[in-house]
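INTERNAL AUDIT FORM
Audit reference: QA-55
Scope: verify that the stored structure record matches its stored sequence.
Auditor: D.O.
Record contents follow.
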Amino acid sequence: MDKLHIAVLMGGWSAERSVSLMSGEGVASALEERGHTVSRIDMDRNLPMVLNELRPDIVFNALHGCPGEDGSVQGLLDLMQIPYTHSGMVTSVIAIDKQLTKQCLVPEGVPMPEGKIVQSNSLYESDPLPRPYVLKPINEGSSVGVAIVHEESNYGNPISVDSKGPWQEFDTLLAEPFIKGRELTCAVLGNRALCVTELVPKSGFYDFDAKYTDGMTYHICPAQIPKDIEKYMMDLALKAHQKLGCKGVSRTDFRWNDELGKEGVFVLETNTQPGMTPLSLVPEQAEQTGVSYGELVETIIGETLWPDQQ
């Protein structure tokens, strides 16, 4: 790859700021090791002026959460006519919204849990679904604000107004049936599904802390699952990537009730800007398929600048 001036955009002010800073530093260091000129940008609201001064060849978008993953930054970069990695504005708007993602993918044959949008204050009157069920913000990632409500939970029945949970932070939430079973994920790079990883938290469920605290989750890569289930998940991840219009890299998360075979496989969401930290799943899967971290980063850039050559 020709040597480029690459602005690595990281940080910001979302709930995933700390993860973004780790992702961005990893990307920046890898690019410098491969001979590129790198400008690190911890995003603030002066971003247009900073970019106008730097005029990089491309922006590597290492932001997680809003506004870096929801189409806002993508729209800004489109207006400034600066190339950037990962998915474009329209795809980002859809994929960050869990309900819009369902509306896009379910008609295409992608199995996803049925869900409903609820007003948070209605939870203090009655449950929106039979317990156990899951409550999650409509447009947050990394399991930020996810709560599993079951009969033995400490939230109350109905949920108490004083109980700590996402209902205290978000006006509206997505309620979905809880799918018992196993947590798995599959990354897509370009137009190739890499492999499937099973995630086994040491305790609780695969929440934000389990994802980004060393030693709290076992990664089984590749997952020890039947070959037909592995292929089915890889096919679904690739279909989600393509139907949503993702570019560069994406990661699709699954729940699998292994008592039901293929009928127990459900897509939870597709992440258009998955983490690039030392504990992140995409670099791990890339390495499993023979792609080093540095090669992974350059491949994502090449997908933007020279898509026909990837």
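Auditor finding: record pair retrieved intact. The chain has a mean pLDDT of 92.
Action required: none
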